[in-house]
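Hi R.,

Here's the chain you asked about this morning:
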Amino acid sequence: MKQVIIIGAGGHARVIGDIVRRAGDCLLGFLDDNVPALGKVADYVNYPDAHFVIGIGNAAVRRKIAGMLAGVRWYTAIHPAAVIGENVQIGEGTVVMANAVVNPGARVGDHCILNTGSIVEHDNIIENYVHISVGAKLAGTVTIGENTWVGIGAVVSNNLTVCADCMIGAGAVVVKNIREPGTYVGVPAKKISD
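And the predicted structure, written out as tokens:
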């Protein structure tokens, strides 16, 4: 049984806490600079035997915190109701929530979020710090670049690449490669800002 501390104490962190408990591990608590918790983020040094996971949705914040917590053991949280196929790689500090599906051959990077009911089809490449939102669907052989957020219910068609640093709006449908960072919305998805 692993002892786990979650960085952050908001709603996303509470969902991760539920995953930790359901996985049979021990949730020691939360470290957060803004709300009452075990302590502040910098207090991670007081828990040398713990495993850590970042419970914050913002990719830039996750990246910053991951860089600050030198030498910690990262916890990968996979809900027992998630479906993980054969030959799947899931990076450290990543969270896979209830009813998410990750099909064979997919590779998921570090500190990603595969939110409730999201689908990552076969042979996808999900780079570090990506957030696939609730109910978003990625068809087969899709690549999603670092720091990209795929909004709730968005769809990315098969054999496409979305570059790093994008925001795909809720319900958007991506039907061609996205090569420039920015915010994309609509059906089909079109860039609206950088």
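The two ends are 44 Å apart (CA to CA).

Let me know if you need anything else.
M.
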